[in-house]
Amino acid sequence: MDTTPLLRTTDITKYYGGVRALSGACLTVGHGEHIAIMGDNGAGKSTFVKILSGAQEATGGTIEFDGEERSFSTPIDARSAGIETVYQDLSLADDLDVLSNLFLGREERRISLGPLSVVNQRRMARRARELLGEIGVNVPEVHRVVRSLSGGQRQGIVIARAAGWGSKLIIMDEPTAALGVQETAHVHEIIGRLKERGVAIIIVSHNMQQVFELAERVYVFRRGEVVGCRRIAESAPEEIVSLITGAQPADLQGQRA
């Protein structure tokens, strides 16, 4: 049995000029594993996610993904490797329909003649319904304009788009921060279905209940460093809060090798 992690970061460091944003960040994610990242604002979480997603390059350290050492210079590099990122602002084109958003930049063409290309609307619509159905996203019609949909439906579309292109790892940055209780519950169901399909997920969240419901392990960032890792089944919210605030000394107990 292969125990090599899907993702391993070693000593990831990031400087902005003379300001250190990350220092020696080490983290692993197993195949199909769901982990969480927590920490106060300014702890380095967003910088770490941007490095994994190719939005920024690390100053130092290494990223091993799916058995190879990688360097992501652009988000396209990360996507090509199998890493998709769902940002808090959703990155949807509100005035386009569901179908167009799902295939934005990935349109299937019947005839490819540069700017005169003709897209295969029927095939794309069929695939769009499959993508939404596979993870239980309830959208009445794929030709519906995204602006008219609820927050939960919009989040579901972004997750379906991320999961639909051969993704091995999906990073979710505060996936339910702007959603109500019922919509949040539905997004949790969608994440649960991704678990059943073996898709690994990193959830960046301030919501302790969400982390304990969805993740297997949680990494805590503080002042640009990973100060602890805990298995959810063996920990409690109070212990995580202590790591976040610094009341408990930094360590990496429970980190997967």
Q: Can you offer a commentary on this structure?
A:
With 257 residues, this protein is an alpha/beta fold. Helix content is 31%, strand content 26%. It has helices spanning 45-53, 75-81, 98-102, 121-134, 151-163, 181-196, 208-214, 237-245, and strands at 7-16, 19-29, 34-38, 60-65, 68-70, 83-86, 109-111, 118-119, 169-173, 200-204, 217-222, 225-231. The strands form 3 sheets. A 6-stranded mixed sheet has the order 6-9-10-3-11-12, sandwiched between helices. A 4-stranded antiparallel sheet has the order 2-1-4-5, with helices on one face. It has a two-stranded antiparallel sheet with strand order 7-8. Strand 9 (169-173), helix 6 (181-196) and strand 10 form a beta-alpha-beta unit. The chain is globular and about 60 Å long. Residues 253-257 have low confidence and may be disordered.
Low-confidence stretches: 253-257
Sheet bearing the most strands, described? 6 strands, mixed
The CA-CA distance between the termini, in Å, is 15 Å
Radius of gyration: 19 Å
What is the 3D shape? globular
Q: What is the percentage of strand-forming residues?
A: 25-35%
In terms of structural class, how would the helical and strand content be classed?
alpha/beta
In which range does the helix fraction lie? Answer: 25-40%
